[in-house]
Design a protein that fits this description.
The protein has helices spanning 35-48, 63-70, 78-82, 92-97, 102-113, 124-129, 133-148, 169-173; strands at 3-4, 19-20, 23-29, 53-57, 86-90, 117-121, 153-158, 176-181, 184-185, 188-189, 191-198, 208-213, 216-220. It has 224 residues and is of the alpha/beta class. The chain has one domain (3-220): Rossmann fold, CATH 3.40.50.300. The strands form three sheets. It has a nine-stranded mixed sheet with strand order 5-4-6-7-3-8-11-12-13.
Length: 224
């Protein structure tokens, strides 16, 4: 199986060297646990070795706000953004104008840039664009199938917690599930990452400690 380095220190050693290519990865976890940071860190890692990365959002937050908060991390490289190796796109307008056409709008952007890694952050806003669960399911299926043809790593982020995942459509459809959490322990909250599934991969199980600092997300497997 082809694999690509995640670009997240500590993660590749948990997953036989990297993410299976192509694959879709659900990155789940409560607000502020590090989902966006991890995904964008992976985009920049790929872009540094010549890949193209795409970050698509559907929320009303303008792209410059997202980029401003991400630019404080050392992995963020403005020159890669200027060269178009990491592309930030806001789908919010397209979604509001014509929800029925979201899939085509997405496909159009993907065909334009042919990304090697793509982040849809958060996938949950897409659900709002569709009037029924059935249509959202069709969208998810079509989109993940479409992305496979691009030999791409597709990250889908979702604000759900561990308890929501077994019942979720996104969890069922994705090839891999990474879940961030920050359980309360005595008086502190520490962050953890767990690999719940990764198709074709013998992965480390259980919650592994996460550190977020200026360099981004680091996983410390085995550290308690
Ligand atoms: N320089 C830093 N040093 C340490 N921790 C940081 C730093 N920058 C951000 N963080 C931590 O990372 C978190 C932000 O992570 P991020 O925005 O990636 O989370 P998220 O899961 O995408 O959240 P949301 O669901 O709200 O989008 C902050 O809540 C903060 O705890
Ligand atoms: Mg986020």
């Amino acid at each position: 199986m082809d694999r690509v380095e995640s670009g997240i220190p500590g993660l590749d050693e948990m997953i036989e060297g990297g993410f299976p290519l192509p694959s879709s990865i659900l990155v789940a976890g409560e607000p502020g646990t590090g989902k966006t940071t991890m995904c964008v860190q992976s985009l920049f890692h790929g872009a540094k070795s010549g890949e193209t990365g795409m970050y698509l959002t559907g929320i009303s937050e303008p792209n410059w706000v997202v980029q401003k908060f991400l630019s404080s991390f050392s992995f963020f490289d403005q020159s890669l953004v200027e060269m178009g190796r990491v592309v930030f796109i806001d789908m919010g307008d397209a979604m509001r104008r014509n929800p029925d056409d979201v899939l085509n709008a997405l496909k159009g952007e993907v065909e334009r840039y042919s990304p090697n890694r793509l982040v849809l952050d958060p996938i949950t806003v897409m659900r709002i664009a569709f009037d029924s669960q059935k249509r959202y399911r069709e969208f998810l299926h079509d989109f993940t199938t479409f992305m496979k043809a691009f030999n791409c790593i597709t990250f889908l982020t979702s604000e759900m917690s561990y308890a929501d995942i077994p019942h979720s459509l996104e969890g069922y459809m994705a090839d891999s599930i990474l879940v961030f959490s920050y359980p309360k322990e005595e008086n502190a909250r520490r962050k953890y990452l767990e690999v719940l599934k990764m198709r074709g991969t013998k992965h480390l199980t259980g919650e592994q400690a996460v550190d977020i600092n200026q360099a981004g997300v680091t996983i410390q497997p085995g550290l308690r």
